[in-house]
Amino acid sequence: MQKRIKLPLTDKDIKELKAGDSVLITGTLLTARDAAHKRLFELIEKGKKLPVDIKGQIIYYVGPAPAKPGHTVGPAGPTSSYRMDKYTPSLLDLGLKGMIGKGARNKDVVDAIVKNNCVYFAAIGGAAALIAKSIKKEEMLCYEDLGTEAIRRYTVEDFPCIVAIDCEGNNVYETGPLKYRK
Amino acid sequence: MEIRCIKADAVTKTVKKLFMDCNYYIGNDIMGALENSYTTENSPIGKNVLAQIIKNDKIAAQEKIPVCQDTGMAILFVEYGDKVVIEDGCFNDAVNEGVRQAYNDGYLRKSVVSDPVFDRVNTKDNTPAIIHTKIISGNTIKITAGGKGFGSENMSAIKMLTPSYGVEGVKKFVLDTVFKAGPNPCPPIVVGVGIGGTFERAAQLAKKATFRSIDTHNEDRRYAKLEQELLSEINKMGFGPAGLGGSTTALGVNIETSPTHIAGMPVAVNICCHAARHASAII
Known about the structure:
The complex is a heterodimer.
Chain A lengths: L1 E5 L4 H6 L5 E10 L2 H12 L12 E3 L27 H6 L4 E4 L5 H9 L3 E4 L5 H5 L2 E8 L8 E15 L6 H9 L2
Parallel strand pairs in A: 1-2, 2-3, 3-4, 4-5
Antiparallel strand pairs in A: 2-7, 5-7, 6-7
Chain B lengths: L3 E4 H17 L3 H13 L3 H20 L9 E9 L2 E4 L3 H15 L24 E7 L4 E8 L1 H4 L3 E5 L4 H16 L7 E9 L1 H12 L10 H14 L15 E11 L4 E8 L6 E4 L1
Parallel strand pairs in B: 1-3, 2-4, 7-8
Antiparallel strand pairs in B: 2-5, 5-10, 6-9, 7-9
Helix pairs in contact in B: 1-4, 2-3, 6-8
């Protein structure tokens, strides 16, 4: 069963999401990956204001391919999340409500997810052409000089994801493989 | 054999087509293995993930768009005939021009930065390519090209094993590397293993192994058996499609070997995601 969820997520919405749930996400989200995270983190460390408001938002870890003429966006699948682990707890402490990416997170990130009542979704790595179908609109927000790594706003409809780490710290990347390990 | 002249432009055109094709069209070997895994996968989430990957790869081919947004660093294995002369240019420049054109005209992502540590500024055309050239006897150029994404490249490893480790040591290192990679390299993965040679040769062989179709086996029966054993062990790890749990963690294991030193047994493991992209042409 796939659950349809709308962004922005309320605290109550987040509490209802359980690790392993298949969801279809509709609403707007921000994109950012390695280089944009580094810049945001450096601003936070200096106590400066961020160029985008992350409060209540979801960040999708993606660096899309260019769009072909006639396409809204190019292929846009998730990138590996662990590379953002160094930066994520600070962003969650500032009000970010969740992330979409792929792969495992470290303990600091899981702890920050639990502490701040947040959620981590997994999208399917390598399903970039399929995921692009659910992205209906793209706006450039900042760091355009970073090219594919710039921060954009995506409007998505029925973006297929799986709740990987829920607000209680249940983690499908740990429990899923254990069920099938021989 | 007579000297043969090949125009630089012919090299550029071939390289351009190979990189566009390999990014749009997943190989029959991978598609066959994905479809087969869909029928054997035990986990419902895993089955769903495989269905999405298969659907994704079909959309990409139909719409001529990349299967994955990470269209990779451009890698080429070249068998260059010693009787070939490139007219109006040099071979490496012609290859890089082909990469430039493929990534610009083909709407592929430019993912290369010029300096690895300090500047990290995007070169904006995905050059330079990584070119492995072997001079062979003849008057043709065979090029095998592939885009390699870094989600899986980052999970690769090399170890300078010594002879007393034996085949058990090889197995342990391969399995440890795949286990450590876990869900990160976009399973189901293809595992390339390079054994022998020197430090750099082992790594190169591991990459070459990922460029070999997964429906082929090592010609030496002992290594072919090892490929099967490793595949079966990896699929017991339980990571499954997208690492969310399941019985399909790898689609194939390919081993390539080389003579080595009396004191050594280097082993390199190059992990590739399910979008194992490669295409070949002969000029």
